[in-house]
Every structure is written in structure tokens, then in C-alpha cells.
């Protein structure tokens, strides 16, 4: 039998896909600088690496992840947590190379993605790049109760062949839904001893990118999942409770992507308005960086600003913030050391 996913296009799915297409159109038309896109896409890559591994139990904070990403040593960080984080970058580089080649998705590619994600981690007990030869189980992380028994190991190769064949077909299914279906099906088959979740999420990203839905690589779906892991696991489990009807999972999947793209769009709007302010008021590059920090952080005190922009002297930051207030770009609340700064809502919402 060939793989034939079952689902219904509901109003929530249609609404989310419409929002996603609008965000896609905005990003294609927006006049965003290449430097900003490069900086934010690198940030998105870090966030995806952090959140996709955090979902699986790593204990690194985002700040620690950023320091490790930059090549710094983080005392006390678990060796396996560090390796899992950095492995994601290696696996993503493989995906980027694949996209340039234009080659189809294959089982060999999925296995290599898995190999790069889990190599050298926790004694390589995940058997990097190899389909499992044993029965595995999905258990509740808190109670250890078994909540899902994947297919028997001998069923894994044919099920993976069916999935890959389906991904290579010219179907009428919307590309965003294809990505969501691929993510669920790989988790459902659970072809590897460990690392199935990370592999499925990167496969989903790959499917989006290859079909033209890369959104300038500015989004991170795992951040949405990590915000409410119970909702994420519940959406997956609902498919099994509804006789493998994917509708509920796809509603959740497209809601997550629409949410992330709305946030990307908001950041894009802010940077466009930032550029207008820079030109209108003759601001320099340093002052533009201060606006970016306020846009990302919301309300900030001077101490937080110095942490966010450590290369700028404190007094220079204070002068720049006061200049933004005087020009009506920012607002100051409070007095002395308790003073906090935020961007004018009317210009930077």
C-alpha cells in the first residue's frame, strides 16, 4: 500500500494558510536590507537549534546557546547538550547544500540528517543514520507511561520508502501541509532509536524551503512548539486517537507557522520604519542599533541596554536614548536609574 494521508481542509486551516501567504507576500515585496536579513536568519537558526533540542530535554539557556554558537566556552554546560546544539548546525548545513543541488528527498538524505543530529551524543546510543532494529516506545516524560507504540522494526523500511515516494510525487496538497504531514509521519514511524523529533522537525523545514516557503529563513517553528510542549505533544497524540486523521495536527501546524510568520512580519515592519527614521532624522548606524534593541526588547532600562549592546559605552547609550526621546522616536518613563525607554507605539508597533 502507498502512503495516503487523510485530512480535511477546515476553516482554521484555510485561514492560517491565507495568513501565511500574506506574510510570504510581504517578505517578498518588503525593502529589507540584506544585512538585516542575514543577521536575523542567523538568529533564527540559533533559535531553532536551541528550541528543537530544548524540546528533547537539553538544559541550556538561550544565552548559553548563543555563547556556544559564537564559539565561547560555557563552564558547567553538559557535554551532550552542547553537542546536540552544535550538531543541529551541521545538519542544517547539509539541508542548505541539498537545496542548492535541487536533488529530491531520499531515504539516504533523511538518514544522513539523523546521523549528523545525533553523532557523538550520549555515547551514540541513538545509532546515527541507522533505522532501528528493535521495538521502541514513546512514554510520558513525567509518569513514564507508554503512550504510543510505533510500528515494528521490520515495517520501518517500507514505511519510510512510502513516505519518500509520496514526498517526491506531484500532489495537489498545499506545500505547507506537505511539510506538516512529513513531520507527523516521520514521528509516527519513529524510524530511529532516538532523535526522531529533531529529525522530523528539520525534515519539515526542508520541505518548506524546497517548495519556496523559506520566508528568507527568518522563522523558527520549534520556538512555537517549545512555548507549550503539552499542546505540541497533544496535537501529535490526537492523530492517533482519531484513527490517523491528520486534520487536528495540521490545524495546529499551520497555526504555529502563521503565528511565527506574523512575528517575522512585525519585525520586518519595525525595521522598515527604523530605516525611515534613520533617513528622516539623520541617525547614525549606532543609533539605528539602539532602535533595533528597543524594538526587540520592548521596555528597557539603561542596565539592560548596556547588556544588549555591550560594545557601546554606557554614557554614549544614555545620550543616544535621550536623542531618540527628543526626536519623538522613543518615550522615557520614570526618573534617574529607574528610567525606562520604549519606542513610540504609533511608529513602531
Order of SSEs: HHHHHEEHHHHHHHEHHEEH
Give the count of structural domains: 2
Query: In CATH terms, what is the architecture of the largest domain?
Result: Orthogonal Bundle
Give a short account of the largest sheet.
3 strands, antiparallel
Gap between N and C termini, in Å?
Answer: 52 Å
Task: Extract low-pLDDT stretches.
Answer: none
Tertiary shape:
globular
- The CATH class label of the largest domain is Mainly Alpha
Which fold name fills CATH's third level, the topology of the largest domain? Fic-like fold
Q: Which percent bin holds the helix content?
A: 55-70%
Describe this structure as you would to a colleague.
- This protein has 349 residues and is mainly alpha-helical.
- It folds into two domains: 11-264, Fic-like fold, CATH 1.10.3290.10; 283-348, Orthogonal Bundle (Arc Repressor Mutant, subunit A), CATH 1.10.10.
- Helices cover 63% and strands 4% of the residues.
- The chain has helices spanning 11-29, 34-55, 62-69, 79-101, 107-118, 156-168, 175-189, 196-210, 221-227, 229-241, 247-281, 285-297, 302-308, 314-326, 345-348; strands spanning 138-139, 146-148, 300-301, 330-333, 340-343.
- The strands form two sheets. A three-stranded antiparallel sheet has the order 3-5-4.
- A hairpin with a 6-residue loop joins strand 1 (138-139) and strand 2.
- The chain is globular and about 70 Å long.
- The N and C termini lie far apart (52 Å).
- The model has no long low-confidence stretch (mean pLDDT 91).
Amino acid at each position: 500500500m502507498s502512503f495516503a494521508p487523510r485530512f480535511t481542509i477546515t476553516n482554521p486551516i484555510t485561514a492560517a494558510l491565507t495568513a501565511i501567504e500574506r506574510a510570504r507576500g510581504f517578505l517578498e515585496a518588503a525593502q529589507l536590507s540584506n544585512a538585516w536579513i542575514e543577521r536575523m536568519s542567523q538568529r533564527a537558526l540559533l533559535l531553532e537549534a536551541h528550541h528543537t533540542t530544548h524540546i528533547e530535554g537539553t538544559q541550556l539557556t538561550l544565552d548559553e546557546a548563543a555563547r556556544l554558537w559564537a564559539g565561547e566556552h560555557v563552564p558547567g554546560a553538559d557535554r551532550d547538550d552542547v553537542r546536540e546544539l552544535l550538531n543541529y548546525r551541521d545538519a542544517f548545513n547539509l539541508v542548505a547544500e541539498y537545496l542548492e543541488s535541487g536533488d529530491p528527498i531520499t531515504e539516504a538524505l533523511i538518514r544522513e540528517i539523523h546521523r549528523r543530529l545525533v553523532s557523538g551524543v550520549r555515547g551514540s546510543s541513538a545509532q546515527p543514520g541507522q533505522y532501528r532494529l528493535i521495538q521502541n516506545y514513546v512514554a510520558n516524560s513525567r509518569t513514564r507511561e507508554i503512550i504510543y507504540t510505533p510500528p515494528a522494526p521490520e515495517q520501518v523500511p517500507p514505511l519510510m520508502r512510502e513516505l519518500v515516494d509520496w514526498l517526491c510525487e506531484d500532489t495537489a496538497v498545499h506545500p505547507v501541509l506537505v511539510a506538516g504531514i512529513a513531520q507527523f509521519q516521520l514521528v509516527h514511524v519513529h524510524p530511529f532509536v532516538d532523535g526522531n523529533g529533531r529529525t522530523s522537525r528539520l525534515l519539515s523545514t526542508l520541505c518548506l524551503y524546497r517548495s519556496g516557503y523559506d520566508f528568507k529563513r527568518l522563522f523558527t517553528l520549534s520556538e512555537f512548539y517549545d512555548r507549550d510542549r503539552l499542546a505540541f505533544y497533544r496535537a501529535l497524540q490526537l492523530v492517533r486517537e482519531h484513527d490517523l486523521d491528520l486534520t487536528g495536527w495540521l490545524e495546529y501546524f499551520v497555526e504555529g507557522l502563521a503565528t511565527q510568520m506574523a512575528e517575522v512580519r512585525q519585525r520586518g515592519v519595525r525595521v522598515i520604519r527604523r530605516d525611515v527614521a534613520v533617513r528622516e532624522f539623520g541617525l547614525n548606524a549606532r543609533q539605528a542599533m539602539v532602535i533595533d534593541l528597543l524594538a526587540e526588547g520592548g521596555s528597557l532600562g539603561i542596565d539592560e541596554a548596556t547588556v544588549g549592546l555591550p560594545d557601546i559605552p554606557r554614557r554614549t547609550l544614555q545620550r543616544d536614548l535621550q536623542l531618540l526621546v527628543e526626536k519623538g522616536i522613543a518615550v522615557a518613563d520614570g526618573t534617574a536609574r529607574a528610567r525606562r525607554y520604549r519606542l513610540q507605539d504609533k511608529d513602531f508597533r
